[in-house]
Specification:
Largest sheet: 7 strands, mixed
Oligomer: single chain
Number of helices: 16
Helix content: 25-40%
Strand order of the largest sheet: 16-18-19-14-13-20-21
Shape: globular
Bound molecules: nicotinamide-adenine-dinucleotide
């Protein structure tokens, strides 16, 4: 019997729409295998989605935050039994190992529940009666929000934007990444079907056709974007003509600073190793460059190389794999080019780790975990966001130099300081230009859903996670009677 291919389609006002042809999604661990396809929508589909969201918004807002939270939590908890099946799909279209796919899906569902739990606080108005008169401060929805999602952790990153937007009383049009649309579209259809029609709409398709139409549409009031800094700049330009409110969670080049006061042992090395290589380095706030005090440098490099050599690279569905391939061809080419450039500059480049299955290595976008030393500070692999399983390690002589190197970047997403003297690490951390500074930790999960998260400099505008995301998704309104002066 012929099996029907899974196609991710736009979903507008409670119904899927056909689109204009489809584009294939292949398995990054075996690029000749087709996993499914997404439908190419166009500007007319985007317009229909935005108008549906616009029409549904007043009734959704009128329900009140607590009822919205009840509906959203019920809709998303209904997804729990599907997590294992969806994790298989996510690993096939993304490449990541299965436990990460489960973490992405569970993390997304838990994020909706977390924001549901903030509804009462969000609904609470501040009422002031004093000698000036009667004043109310309350939060109001903005209207239609565009939610634009990257490919690296589609479930949780979408939830971190969509949950506060919906609890705040807005309706949404979500644009998944064309690289990893299948799981997210399945999740969003299931959520949208359980909410009033038009509250959640989805548009699949290319960045240029769909992304531009969405971020220039006059009825869109809010753009919530997670993705690269380069795209963030484009979206700000696109949103400028109608002056949309924009929240931007962008790229990073996170430094880790291992101080002279750190004990270099298996725990420290494995924490840093996880922060570098989890998800093959494709995490916005993964460690992208390591600075180690010269007195600890030789010990660190040798233990870190040993740790890296134990990593097993393979198909994410193979239980032997610690990490999978990188997700897509542009990313594969870019990371390999950065490695080649470091080698050409005379750096010491060590491709380490083991292959889960050497015979299928050339079938996918596999890259060995790579440690680079003897590298100049100005090299691209140090200054760029590599977003792959490769990391430069650089020695420093004093902490002022380390802080200067860490801050010498247009990025400022996260950073970490490693020391046995935690008070000193906190003091040094305060000098780093990063939205999150972690002490003796820097891995997936170091940034909790309740902990405000975002970037300094070109790593972002605004903050996600925590209550502040509800503030970012709403307008502050003041209602006042005549004030007695
Ligand atoms: P990307 O910027 O290439 O794409 C992100 C999304 O934007 C995709 O859906 C894409 O189709 C869309 N898009 C692209 N051009 C557009 C345009 N002109 N108008 C509207 N939409 C457009 O990013 P990516 O490669 O999918 O994701 C990786 C990047 O995301 C990395 O830089 C990573 O650091 C960053 N990221 C940041 C965070 C954070 O919280 N700060 C989290 C995850 C990923």
């Amino acid at each position: 019997m012929e099996t029907v291919e899974r196609v991710a389609r736009s979903f507008v006002n409670g119904s899927p729409i056909a689109g204009n042809g489809t584009t294939a999604i292949t398995d990054p661990a075996s690029v000749r295998e087709r996993v499914g396809a997404f439908a190419e929508s166009d500007a007319n589909d985007v317009d229909a989605a935005v108008r549906a969201a616009h029409a549904a918004q007043p009734a959704w807002a009128a329900l009140g935050a607590i009822e919205r939270a009840r509906l959203l939590t019920a809709a998303t908890q209904a997804l729990v039994p599907s997590v294992d099946e969806l994790a298989q799909l996510l690993t096939r279209e993304h490449g990541k190992v299965l436990w990460e796919s489960v973490a992405d899906l569970r993390g997304g569902i838990n994020t909706y529940a977390y924001y549901g739990g903030l509804a009462e606080r969000f609904a609470t108005e501040l009422v002031i009666d004093d000698h000036r008169g009667h004043i109310i401060e309350a939060r109001r929805p903005m209207g239609v929000a565009a939610v634009i999602v990257p490919w690296n952790f589609p479930s949780i990153l979408c939830a971190l934007m969509l949950a506060p937007i919906l609890i705040a009383g807005n309706t949404a049009v979500v644009k998944p990444s064309p690289f990893v649309p299948l799981t997210l579209v399945a999740l969003l259809h299931a959520i949208a079907e359980r909410l009033p029609a038009g509250v959640v709409n989805v548009v699949t398709g290319s960045a240029i056709e769909v992304g531009v139409a969405l971020t220039t549409h006059p009825l869109v009031r809010k753009v919530s974007f997670t993705g690269s800094t380069a795209t963030g700049r484009e979206i700000l330009k696109q949103a400028a003509s109608t002056l949309k409110n924009c929240t931007m969670e962008l790229g990073g080049n996170d430094p880790a600073l291992v101080l002279a006061s750190a004990t270099v042992d298996a725990r420290l090395v494995s924490e840093i190793g996880k922060a570098v290589f989890t998800s093959s380095g494709q995490i916005c706030y993964g460690i992208k460059r390591i600075y180690v005090h010269r007195s600890r440098y030789a010990a660190f490099v040798s233990q870190f190389a040993e740790y890296t050599n134990e990593i097993v690279v393979g198909n994410g569905r193979d239980s032997r794999s610690t990490i999978g391939p990188v997700n897509n061809k542009p990313q594969f080419d870019r990371v390999n080019a950065l490695i080649a450039d470091a080698r050409a500059q005379g750096a010491t480049v060590r491709a380490l780790g083991k292959k889960a299955d050497a015979s299928s290595w050339d079938d996918g976008y596999f890259i060995a975990p790579t440690v680079i030393t003897d590298i100049a500070h100005a090299a691209d692999v140090v200054t760029c966001e590599q977003f792959g399983p490769v990391v430069p390690i650089i020695a420093f002589d004093d902490e002022d130099e380390a802080v200067m190197r860490a801050n010498d970047s247009e990025y400022g997403l996260a950073a970490s300081v490693w020391s046995d003297d935690e008070d000193h690490a906190f003091a040094l951390g305060a000098r780093l230009e990063a939205g999150s500074v972690f002490i003796n930790v820097h891995k997936l999960g170091a940034s909790d859903v309740a902990m405000p998260f975002g970037g300094f400099k070109q790593s972002g505008i605004g903050r996600g996670h925590g209550f502040i995301a509800l503030e970012e998704a709403s307008e502050l309104q003041v209602l006042a009677k005549r004030i007695n002066l």
